[in-house]
Amino acid sequence: MRLSERFVDNCILINSASETKEAILNELVDTLCSAYKLEHRDEIFEAVWNREQSRSTGIGCGLAVPHAKIDYVDRMCMVAATVEKGLDFQSFDGEPVYLLILIVSPGNTVGPHLKALSSVSRLLADGNVRKDLIAAKTPAEFITTLRAAEDKYL
Q: Lower CB count within 10 Å: N or C terminus of the chain?
């Protein structure tokens, strides 16, 4: 799955100023709802937050992939954020998170959601790809970097 094809306009936050897990998740959900014109913002946040409380999605190496399956969406939606100074996300390796990709999918689907998570893992296993995405100065640069990684790994 080519993740770059899933991102719509205005869904990439460069250098978020959020300083906590809850703040960045709120910012990501706000961006998601705005970019995809979604209603039920509070319910979407609650699903993402509840998933995060059950087990951190900070998978290590500066990356977090918060995700949830929600009945209030009719298609997979994705947003991304970079956090230049990093933030505590209770990651498995105990390190700060600098790059986040939020994935929200309809509650009645399985395959596309798992494929998206798999693609994130495959692409971002490369430390140089992570570093280049985190260093992106614009959303366009972020997408260009992501596409180059997809051409290499997918």
A: C
Cβ neighbours of residue 103 closer than 8 Å, sequence gap 6 or more: 65, 66, 67, 76, 77, 78, 113, 116, 117, 120
Average pLDDT, the chain: 95
In terms of DSSP bridges, do strands 58-60 and 97-106 run parallel, antiparallel, or are they unpaired? Answer: unpaired
Please indicate, yes or no, whether the overall pTM of this predicted structure exceeds 0.70: yes
Active-site residue, 67 included: yes
Among candidate residues 21, 67, 113, 130, the one labeled active-site is 67
Helix (H) or strand (E) holding 122: helix 111-124
Query: Would you call 79 helix, strand, or coil by DSSP?
Result: strand
Task: Tell me how far apart the alpha carbons of residues 154 and 6 are, in angstroms, rounded to a whole number.
Answer: 15
Q: How far apart are CA 44 and CA 50, in angstroms?
A: 10
- DSSP bridge pairs for 12: 80
Radius of gyration of the chain (CA): 14
pLDDT of residue 72: 84
- Provide the phi-psi class of 58: left if phi over 0, else alpha when psi is between -120 and 50, else beta: beta
